Amino acid sequence: MGQAGCKGLYQSLFDYKTEKYVIAKNKKVGLLYRLLQVSILTYLVVWVFLVKKCYQDTDTSLQSSIITKVKGVTFTNTSELGERLWDVADYVIPPQGENVFFVITNLVVTPNQRQETCAESASVPDALCYEDNDCPPGEPVAAGNGVRTGRCMREGSAQKGTCEIFAWCPVETRSRPTKPLLGEAKDFTVYIKNFIRFPKFNFSKTNVLDTKDRTFLKSCKFSPENPYCPIFRLGSVVSWTGSNFQEIAVQGGVIGIQIEWDCDLDKAPSECYPRYYFNRLDNRFSGNSISSGYNFRFAKYYRDAAGVEFRTLFKAYGIRFDVMVNGKGSFFCDLVLIYFIKKSHFYRDKKYEEVRDLEVLAQTAESSQQAWPRTLGLAEQPEVQDEGGAQKENGCVCGQLLQPASIAG
């Protein structure tokens, strides 16, 4: 590079460049440009602001608590159990009420089981045998009820039998009733109480109507027109999933109850109410599918006069209810406080803190002390409640803060 080139490069370091605009007097180009501007503006106003409401702050960290309580009684008369009255202590598991609870609708009962030897059930494939060597002693029967003793037990002259086992005998019967034992459970009711809170906005609410009428919960039933009544009839919940109660009561099933809180907190707290969705979660498309239904076993233990333990085994079929809660709360508050209300400069100064040197800070502190008596008139904003038990505390209540400005305007 020559001397002249180096000199030109050096001088260019001190050049200042500015933009130059050329105005094209062309109607087609101008019209296309304005249409593009209008399209962008329409997208921002309609989609971004009105539809998506992107001007709002959103809180998805929902805090929730669920309390459930089932009510209802029914009477049965069976050969295994005799005459029996069933209440919530008999058919609801767990009894204390959680977001997952189970209601018994059908039972297979095996009474008076004792620990002794007996033949394994013929419905267990691993228990089939032709001779004693097929039943090695001490080995458990896969998917069976006990431990082999080493004997193959056959009835009469039959060539094939089942292994003798040490177990709770007699072993469980495999037949399932075709008619549900507690078919009347369709008229039982469940009380689902849900507390929610959006911590970012300090907003809380419940799905129960805030009323002093003590008879409200005893007389109301949930419906889409009455979302603040948390009393649900079990038969109605099952029908809302598209299932038949008597069918699901025979072999059991799993029902999901979803409570969704999608709250626009710019509106009145009464506009934030729960929406309920009901779904069948187990395989409902084939009644004979091995993946459909729901059951489990439990036993009640006793001792006879000689102190020997025995038990009654229950294989319980029923409906498991899973209550799930989700939601989000959105709020316009910061944008309104900082820019649009009458005293926005006051809230803006509180939100944003300036860092200055020590001399300026000292002067500011002195002036603040002189102005202190004039600030004693500021009062806290009271909290707001609605009929659904909602609360907005004074940390961020747009409705109250906007009111003076709207009157003045």
Automatic annotation (TrEMBL):
<dbReference type="InterPro" id="IPR059116">
    <property type="entry name" value="P2X_receptor"/>
</dbReference>
<dbReference type="GO" id="GO:0004931">
    <property type="term" value="F:extracellularly ATP-gated monoatomic cation channel activity"/>
</dbReference>
<keyword id="KW-0407">Ion channel</keyword>
<dbReference type="InterPro" id="IPR003048">
    <property type="entry name" value="P2X5_purnocptor"/>
</dbReference>
<dbReference type="Pfam" id="PF00864">
    <property type="entry name" value="P2X_receptor"/>
</dbReference>
<feature type="binding site">
    <location>
        <position position="189"/>
    </location>
    <ligand>
        <name>ATP</name>
    </ligand>
</feature>
<dbReference type="GO" id="GO:0036179">
    <property type="term" value="P:osteoclast maturation"/>
</dbReference>
<dbReference type="GO" id="GO:0070588">
    <property type="term" value="P:calcium ion transmembrane transport"/>
</dbReference>
<feature type="disulfide bond">
    <location>
        <begin position="118"/>
        <end position="169"/>
    </location>
</feature>
<feature type="disulfide bond">
    <location>
        <begin position="129"/>
        <end position="152"/>
    </location>
</feature>
<keyword id="KW-1133">Transmembrane helix</keyword>
<dbReference type="GO" id="GO:0098794">
    <property type="term" value="C:postsynapse"/>
</dbReference>
<keyword id="KW-0547">Nucleotide-binding</keyword>
<feature type="disulfide bond">
    <location>
        <begin position="220"/>
        <end position="229"/>
    </location>
</feature>
<dbReference type="InterPro" id="IPR053792">
    <property type="entry name" value="P2X_RECEPTOR_CS"/>
</dbReference>
<keyword id="KW-0812">Transmembrane</keyword>
<dbReference type="GO" id="GO:0005524">
    <property type="term" value="F:ATP binding"/>
</dbReference>
<dbReference type="GO" id="GO:0033198">
    <property type="term" value="P:response to ATP"/>
</dbReference>
<keyword id="KW-0067">ATP-binding</keyword>
<dbReference type="InterPro" id="IPR001429">
    <property type="entry name" value="P2X_purnocptor"/>
</dbReference>
<keyword id="KW-0325">Glycoprotein</keyword>
<dbReference type="GO" id="GO:0099095">
    <property type="term" value="F:ligand-gated monoatomic anion channel activity"/>
</dbReference>
<dbReference type="GO" id="GO:0005886">
    <property type="term" value="C:plasma membrane"/>
</dbReference>
<feature type="transmembrane region" description="Helical">
    <location>
        <begin position="31"/>
        <end position="50"/>
    </location>
</feature>
<protein>
    <recommendedName>
        <fullName>P2X purinoceptor</fullName>
    </recommendedName>
</protein>
<comment type="function">
    <text>Receptor for ATP that acts as a ligand-gated ion channel.</text>
</comment>
<keyword id="KW-0813">Transport</keyword>
<keyword id="KW-0675">Receptor</keyword>
<comment type="subunit">
    <text>Functional P2XRs are organized as homomeric and heteromeric trimers. Homotrimer. Forms heterotrimer with P2RX1.</text>
</comment>
<feature type="binding site">
    <location>
        <position position="315"/>
    </location>
    <ligand>
        <name>ATP</name>
    </ligand>
</feature>
<feature type="disulfide bond">
    <location>
        <begin position="263"/>
        <end position="272"/>
    </location>
</feature>
<dbReference type="GO" id="GO:0001614">
    <property type="term" value="F:purinergic nucleotide receptor activity"/>
</dbReference>
<dbReference type="GO" id="GO:0006821">
    <property type="term" value="P:chloride transport"/>
</dbReference>
<feature type="binding site">
    <location>
        <begin position="69"/>
        <end position="71"/>
    </location>
    <ligand>
        <name>ATP</name>
    </ligand>
</feature>
<keyword id="KW-1015">Disulfide bond</keyword>
<keyword id="KW-1003">Cell membrane</keyword>
<feature type="disulfide bond">
    <location>
        <begin position="135"/>
        <end position="163"/>
    </location>
</feature>
<comment type="similarity">
    <text>Belongs to the P2X receptor family.</text>
</comment>
<dbReference type="InterPro" id="IPR027309">
    <property type="entry name" value="P2X_extracellular_dom_sf"/>
</dbReference>
<feature type="binding site">
    <location>
        <begin position="295"/>
        <end position="297"/>
    </location>
    <ligand>
        <name>ATP</name>
    </ligand>
</feature>
<keyword id="KW-1071">Ligand-gated ion channel</keyword>
<keyword id="KW-0472">Membrane</keyword>
